[in-house]
Write a structure and sequence with these properties.
single chain; alpha/beta; three-stranded mixed β-sheet
Length: 216
């Protein structure tokens, strides 16, 4: 950790060759990695953790707050190259009975919100996805307006077990910037964003080039 420096950006590990990433990660203690992944977006944290064996993952996750631990373990339990592995578990979700004013106050006060988002997801008491509200629509509606009156039906929700390449095709087909990810009970578990999908497209393109060159 000292060799990397205190200001080292661990998100950069998602951009380097796997062999280099593993060499760095394997030389860090579990408490150092735990400190590092806490500062990352969940999709970047999963990208780094998924290369480790289960015992190493558990040793790191055990040092995280319960909520974060559960979110990351759930993502890691989805199949490799699935939407569940690629999704961000940070998202904004509110009940339909809230007012616009309540929702805006929530956005201002909640320190756990993702850094960037363009949609607010609407869920029922069981966290089943029921709709979404675009930020521009929210901000153009008076505070006393109800979320139920301005939300629209969720478009193109993606099952967490869907293959990442198939999810990328949906993004391309419908020009999506983000999409909700749901479990087998249609409960909201995460969000896929266009930057996640760009990474998938680039990886698939690289694999096709290697395949054409006869490289496994």
């Amino acid at each position: 950790m000292q060799l990397l420096g205190k200001e080292f950006d661990f998100s950069s590990l998602t951009e380097v060759d796997e062999a280099i990433r593993m060499e760095i990660v394997e030389n860090l203690a579990s408490d150092q990695l735990a400190d590092a992944v806490q500062d990352l977006d969940s999709d970047d944290a999963v990208y780094i953790l998924e290369d480790l064996d289960i015992e190493e993952q558990d040793a790191i996750l055990a040092q995280l707050p319960v909520t974060e631990r559960v979110r990351l373990r759930r993502a890691l339990d989805y199949p490799e190259e699935s939407a569940g592995r690629r999704m961000q578990t940070e998202f904004v979700a509110v009940p339909a009975y809230w007012t616009v004013g309540q929702t805006i106050d929530h956005l201002r006060d909640d320190t756990e919100l993702p850094e960037r988002f363009s949609q607010i997801h609407v869920v029922d008491p069981t966290f089943k996805l029921t709709g979404a509200v675009d930020l521009d629509r929210l901000l153009r509606t008076k505070r006393q307006g109800k979320i139920a009156d301005i939300m629209h039906e969720t478009r193109h929700a993606i099952p967490a077990t869907m293959d990442q390449e198939e999810a990328a095709q949906l993004f391309q087909q419908y020009n999506l910037l983000s999409a909700a990810v749901v479990d087998e009970s249609e409960r909201l578990v995460g969000v896929l964003t266009i930057d996640d999908i760009v990474d998938v497209i680039q990886e698939e393109a690289a694999e096709q080039v290697l395949h054409l060159g006869g490289v496994g």
